Amino acid sequence: MRILVTGSSGHLGEALMRTLRAAAHDAVGIDIAPSPYTDAVGSVADRDFVARCMRGAQAVLHAATLHKPHVATHTRQDFVDTNITGTLNLLEEAAANGVGAFVYTSTTSAFGDALVPPAGEPAAWITEDVAPVAKNIYGATKTAAEDLCRIFQRKQKLPCLVLRTSRFFPEPDDDPALRGAYADGNIKANELLYRRVDVQDIVDAHLLAVARAPEIGFGRYIVSATTPFEHEDRAELRRDAPAVLARRVPGYEAEYAHRGWRMFPSLDRVYVNALARKELGWRPRYDFGHILERLRAGEDPRSPLAQAIGIKGYHGQAYEDGLYPVE
User: Fold this and answer.
1) Residue 126 belongs to what domain range?
2) CA-CA distance, 222 to 129, in Å (whole number)?
């Protein structure tokens, strides 16, 4: 199968290209930046470039995007050009070429202000039924692109699935206060409980989405590690998250104490992946329990794929706050 992968020089794009090539797929990577996993350099906002690259494609994995860290360095028009116009170009050409499956990589950031409930309220239980409330141009353009996918499935009968992925970047956290209070590994382990996913599991979800798209037609799915928490935990998670974790994952404290790690005192949201597991047949492997096992064995908790890709950054330069510019 010939598969077009956009954003092939980025974290997820490289992961997809590595996996597809290893499986002997005819994968074509495109990106604005050259890399060993990019076959054609150009912008998805360039319709002619997209048209040339789309020829012969049977499926599209659209991972190219401007991300949240770009909000401080790029204009709103840049976000519209890449995230909306670029997606429209790809959809137009995919429909014109009879592509059988279009998978759009979106983000849980699309939920925006719906992710943080008022003080004193229970943690937000985030499923696909939660209505997004955009808080910046990043979220606004991602949800607009999702709706374009829905329109093309409805009007052009192009099978389109949207995967809203949670955090998977290996870079240090963009919050300097959090970085100062917790070790990086501690932060990422905590996040796997409610708002993070390993890139290997994301790749698996994308490949399942390609296979299921013709049958499903259109769907939006949260792609995040399976949480051990339950709906009835929401209020206590906001008040005393360590107590809930001790109840749901008995024995975690010993490994954390051994490393000098701590659970966050409070959680404001929990991403729920039940729909993706049910409709895509997705089985994420790198959840909190698996990570604890790897840590106890003295092994790197990340997947081999995540380790191979490593840190890329977003801007190609350093700032006063390290990797991240101040908006």
Assistant:
1) 2-309
2) 10
160-165 vs 218-223, strand pairing mode: parallel
Mean pLDDT of 222-242: 98
pLDDT digits (tens, 9 = 90+) for 278-322: 999 999 999 999 999 999 999 999 999 999 998 865 555 554 555
d(CA 117, CA 123): 7
Coil vs helix vs strand at 313: coil
How much is the pLDDT for 319? Answer: 47
- Where does the pLDDT of residue 71 fall: very low under 50, low under 70, confident under 90, or very high at 90 and above? confident
Q: Which two tokens stand for residue 17?
A: 């290209």
With respect to residue 280, please indicate whether it lies within any of the assigned structural domains.
yes
Total domains in the fold of the chain: 1
CA dihedral 319, 325, 326, 327 (to 10 degrees): 150
| Encoded amino acid at 284, one letter | P
Radius of gyration over every alpha carbon of the chain, rounded to an integer in angstroms:
19
Does a structural domain hold residue 213?
A: yes
Evaluate whether residue 322 is within a structural domain: no
Euclidean distance between CA atoms 275 and 263, whole angstroms: 27
